[in-house]
Amino acid sequence: MQLNLKSLFWNGIFVLVLLSICWLIYASGKRIDYNWNWERVVPYIATNAESSINAPEDGEIVLAANNQLVLENLSGDVIVELGNYSSLNVYEGDLIFEGDTLASIEEWRMGPILHGVITTVKISAWSLVFALVLGLFIGLMRISSNPALKKLSIVYIELIRGTPLLVQIFIVYFFIGTVLDLERFTAGVISLSVFTSAYVAEIVRSGIQSIPKGQMEAARSLGMNYPKAMMYVILPQAFKQTLPPLAGQFINLIKDSSLVSVISITDLTKAGREVVSGSFAPFEVWFTVAALYLILTSGLSWAIQALEKKLSASD
């Protein structure tokens, strides 16, 4: 009973803190005489507003054999069938010029913010895969007995970790990207992958070195060579040890992806800036962007926690 009362008390404190934060945000808006207009943000997330169906080229509206209106070009070929649209702006016999509105249709469409979320997910997913592979190789080089490989990995890690990600993005896009003719998306993925891989390499190194040396000796005594012992004995154990810090690094990767907006990649952050200029609701937009980043990072955190529990249950 006493334990339940104590738990209830601290849960009440937690709720009180959250309510206090919400009140402070509201009071701050009132203090600067700010009017909250959340309805302005919704169309930029998803909307079912009418969209126009425009003529791709010049032609004429004619009645087809199935008693449906179609747009024929000057050669007599059907280029747009209008039978599927309930709201038509043209009639039989109308002469149509390129760009004229033929019909209107209501359908749910993603707004720029959701498009930005998709771009963020894509660039983060590609960067995560490449960073994991590259970081694994750099981490193995870091513990190699070959002095050249070991020193190269140290130089790589110190160079990447010792320079800001923003500067690296500029170098990759404006210098390497110009030489190799890279697209913005590719340059962003390379920058994030290289930056994250340096941290992944150190996590991999620490994970491998945390495994007792007797494990490697036992594997070698069973006739395994070094690569097989590393792949089948050491790395699976090290993966379990490094999963929590890897999760933190991958969450940082999603947040760091916001920096690619400086090279005109329309990710979630850049989409937010564009929406602010069109909606005149800066606070609402940035709170929405922050919430979407939180959903992405929380989803990844939950997935890794589930994987961690599954791996621990298999021990």
TrEMBL record:
Membrane topology value: Multi-pass membrane protein
Major localization class: membrane
Domain of life (superkingdom): Bacteria
Alphabetical list of PROSITE patterns matching this protein: ABC_TM1
Compartmental location: Cell inner membrane; Cell membrane
Pfam families: BPD_transp_1 (PF00528)
InterPro entries in the cross-refs: AA_ABC_transptr_permease_3TM (IPR010065), ArtM/GltK/GlnP/TcyL/YhdX-like (IPR043429), MetI-like (IPR000515), MetI-like_sf (IPR035906)
Alphabetical UniProt keywords: Amino-acid transport, Cell membrane, Membrane, Transmembrane, Transmembrane helix, Transport
Residue ranges constituting the ABC transmembrane type-1 domain according to the UniProt record: 117-304
Transmembrane segments: 7-26, 123-143, 155-176, 285-304
Assigned protein family: Belongs to the binding-protein-dependent transport system permease family. HisMQ subfamily.
Function recorded in the entry: Part of the binding-protein-dependent transport system for glutamine; probably responsible for the translocation of the substrate across the membrane.
PANTHER family: GLUTAMINE TRANSPORT SYSTEM PERMEASE PROTEIN GLNP (PTHR30614:SF20), MEMBRANE COMPONENT OF AMINO ACID ABC TRANSPORTER (PTHR30614)
Protein name, as recorded: Amino acid ABC transporter permease
